[in-house]
Predict the 3D structure of the following.
Amino acid sequence: MDDKALDKARSRLRVAKKALLELEASETFQEFADNWYVFLGSAKNIYTVLEQGAKCSAQSKQWFGAKKRVRKQDQLLQYLYEARNDDEHGLGSSIALQPERRAIGIAEPGYSNTMILNGGPFKDVLVSGGSTAFVSEGPLPVDIRATPLDGKPVLERRTPATAILIEVKARGNRIYNPPTTHLGDDLTDVSPISVAKLAIDYLEGLIAEASSLT
């Protein structure tokens, strides 16, 4: 593996790590989207640099060919690769802002599951046996109220607006959905930041392996 390629790959990894820190600190969706763009580009460029650096020997070429196949077969790695391509060359995006959600009358142990809703779109509406009485994107109507009929308190919950991964369109009308697995393991958290962290862990290992080929 060419030493210059390794140095450049390490530089791109530093950029990707910095972008991850900026993602975590983003205060607006616009900031998040800008930092996501930087992360995607720097992460993808590590492959580009290593591919060029691997041309110096048959061993390196064989190694990179195997790693390229891993990327194509792995949901998370291939999703990020295609997300960068679409972001750079197309008009789409791989992230979107999921609006704030407010829920009232969530049926959990100890809380009411039978109530009367009034206010907003409701007038004396009986809700019983459901998982949630009412869900609203954005703030709840100011006049909405739930009157429990079983003597239990009514549970409300607010989920803040958050960035989520969305499907990516690629050439040939191919669609890449947000990943659900990585290296054979199911993903329990598919948020952009979690996916970025897993990618950086993998790319660190990739560069370490490449370094052993010198």
